[in-house]
Amino acid sequence: MAECKNRRKHVLLLAYQSFGVVFSDLSTSPLYVYKCTFSGRLRHYQNEDTVFGAFSLVFWTLTLFSLFKYVGFMLCANDNGEGGIFALYSVICRHAKFCLLPNQQAADEEISTYHSAGYSNRNVVSSRFKKFVEGHKKMKTALLVLVLFGAAVFITIAIFTPAISILSSVEGLQVRAKNLHRGMLVIIALFLLIGLFVLQHYGMHRVAFMFAPIVILWLLSVAFVGIYNIINWNPRVYQALSPYYIYKFFEETGKDGWISLGGILLCITGTEVVFAGLGHFTASSIRVAFSFVVYPCLVLQYMGQAAFLSQNLSAVSTSFHSSIPDWLFWPVTVMATLAAIVASQAVVSATFSIAKQCHALGCFPRIKIVHKSKWLHRQTYIPEINWALMILCLAVTIGYQDTIHLGNAYGIACITGIFVTTCLTSMVIDFVWHKSLFGALLYFSFFGIIEIIFISSSCMRIPKGGWIPLVLSAIFMFVMYVWHYGSRKKYLYDLHNKVSMKWILTLDSDLGIVRIPGIGLVYTELSSGVPAMFSHFITDLPTFYQVVVFICIKTVPIPYVSQKERYLIGRIGPKPYRLYRCIVRYGYKDVHENDDYDFENAIVMSVAEFIQLEAEGGGTLDGSVDGRLAVVRSSENFGKRFTMSESDGNKESSRWSYPASGSSSRSAALQKLKSMYEQESPEFCKRRRIQLKLLDTTYKDSRVKEELLDLMEAKDAGVAYVIGHSHVKAKWNATFWKRLLINVLYSFLRKNCRSPSVGLNIPQTSLIEVGMNYHL
Q1: Are strands 719-729 and 514-523 parallel, antiparallel or unpaired?
Q2: DSSP states along 455-522
Q3: What is the DSSP-derived secondary structure letter of residue 726?
Q4: pTM of this prediction exceeds 0.85
Q5: What is the dihedral of CA 225, 229, 230, 235, to 10 degrees?
Q6: What span is annotated as the signal peptide, if there is one (predicted)?
């Protein structure tokens, strides 16, 4: 009983918090729905039945899509509790051979969250359509392009949402100040937009606690205004809940009514954010919040606005603000502005998440992803995306200067994104849930046909500004695909030109070079074999570090990978070579470690554990082995065979965590350079210094202890990071289009994005770059 009560409290708490994150965008739609609906020829039909028909369309659109499709059905199509377009794509890729990500291994399928409970049965016979798609690479590429287009549309939505929400909220000032010029409203909106994007840099953790109360007060306010208008203007408006009024609406308005659907669909803008924000909450909490608060409040508001318009159709251009009672006008207007800012913040944050997921899946140029421990859980900030969104948002606000034209563009972007989601969900029904193909087609036919009708209506608004979101989405999608294409070709080149093990084995334990103290972390995209970069380095400069670890950082198609399952360790060549492989696996929503010392220490501890497990013959105890690779952190003895002494300034302590050591050198010249760097960068001195010491443990094989001592000695000597500095060019006999993509577009993106060392958070004082030419 107590457990059930605590569970209910938890659901209610999450439901309360969800208002400020996932429902704020949907809740601000009443500001502009009727204005955009009656913006065209529909304003000539000034009678009660037309208004009632418009409300009936709004009611049933909101019910079918927001309530039934998204809240009722789509929340079930999650990926380990995560929602969004990449959650659908990743769950499809895991249950069918559609994934175009490099470095996929059989060991990845042993991750505990790879196969979600209740999703699929491996023994179920695949459908013919699934086998057809799996057998054609072009179909896999088409699926990826569809997903990238959906992501591009979401980024476009993040440009228009702040513009239309904030501009429509301040338009109410014209109701009280008749002489207020339109340009002044635009200037006010621009200042609010600039403030919104500037604050992103500092994080929203200080004011986030206000988001949910603001949206709740906003919803209760508009619901009260709706009830007031129903009673005061037209109590018979409840009759429009009947779909019969939709029939009467189209019978009377005909083609003009069909064109007005582009405004009706604005009532469901924000439903994609509801699904994308699932990971922060639970499906049950979102359903409770929407079903008992958001949905009833929105229905009452739309109904009340319709009651007001049925008697005051001439006020349609300011229908929301004009319908507010005089004594409530200023409080509701202030709440509208605050709710619009919260809605904009939610969409911008969701866009950062979408861009991060694109980047993790190798479909976005290298960007700087900022996450601070004091920020909200999973909150990220991407400077490049933030400032680009701000510039574009200001541009469309200045360019359109009107809610109606913004609505034309916004509606096209939203309904396109919803249609992409419908296509992917149909595939989940067939490929993942293993329902019949007929069931998937039935789902697609019902929702897809309705969405196509809305899209056809929105296309009539393309000449009126609706072309801009399509062009922006196409540009974003093209950039993402070019980056994916170039990165994949580069990986295939590395795979084809990797050094064979036969070449490694022909060398002696010193690899034919001078081995110097320290650890060399060689970054490569290969999960097997030795990259050509390494042989290129030791051929031109025959010296390298005492211990070499080949680091492969890769993304697996799941949201998160636990720390215990993150590091996959193996050995390359005989033991005396001191060559190891470490595959670091992240989910597409994981936040990478920001502390390079923590990362160094985690690598060293994992390699040390692998050495001991290998000696004990325990490498297969966990069942997580791929050839000579093993997940070592699942071992019960992980971290218990060493002592760690930590010094922070003049203080020293001992703790069982995974910090890391600072790099050092025995060279006097490098020591001098290091001291100069410390003087220029005081934060470097504040970092923790860690020293690992091997416990007095008896080993059957003395060579094991010798290898561990070598590892500890190398760590104390310092850690260097070796990455490739590549120059990419298409082959001389490549086609014109390939040369254009590689030599011009992909090269341009590579030169104008972050360097690999920034994305990997590699300290510049420990960085070694090896030049490599790629002929793709």
Answers
A1: parallel
A2: HHHHHTTGGGTTHHHHHHHHHHHHHHHHHHHHHHHHHHHHHHTPBPHHHHHTS-TTTTSEEEEEEEEE
A3: E
A4: yes
A5: 170
A6: none
Q: Which of 301, 310, 296, 299 is nearest to 234 (CA)?
A: 310
Separation in Å, CA 351 to CA 161, 286, 384, 475, 591: 11, 20, 12, 16, 15
DSSP 379-391: --B-HHHHHHHHH
Nearest 5 degrees, angle CA 62-CA 273-CA 480? 125
Phi, psi of 775 (to 5 degrees): -115, 100
Helix 182-200 × helix 329-360 angle, to 10°: 50
Could you say which residues of the chain have pLDDT below 70? 1, 116-126, 204-206, 372-378, 507-512, 593-597, 618-628, 633-701
- pLDDT tens sequence across 666-694: 456 656 655 665 555 555 555 555 666 66
Q: What is the predicted pLDDT for the residue at 285?
A: 92
User: Token pair for residue 96?
Assistant: 């069918």
User: How far is CA 662 from each of CA 99, 599, 678, 686, rounded to the nearest angstrom?
Assistant: 39, 11, 11, 11
Spatial neighbors of 131 by CB under 8 A, at least 6 apart, are: none
Residues 486 and 748: beta-carbon distance below 8 Å: no
Which 3 state secondary structure label does DSSP give 652?
A: strand
Task: Kindly report the number of other CB atoms within 10 A of residue 445's CB atom.
Answer: 12
303 token code pair: 């109904």
Question: Which residues sit opposite 625 in a β-bridge?
Answer: 630
DSSP structural state of residue 622: T
Provide the 3-class DSSP secondary structure of residue 618. Answer: coil
pLDDT digits 0-9 by tens, 56-69: 999 999 999 999 99
Residues 6+ apart with CB under 8 A from 519: 545, 546, 547, 548, 549, 600, 604, 711, 714, 715, 717, 718, 719, 720
Q: What is the pLDDT of residue 129?
A: 73
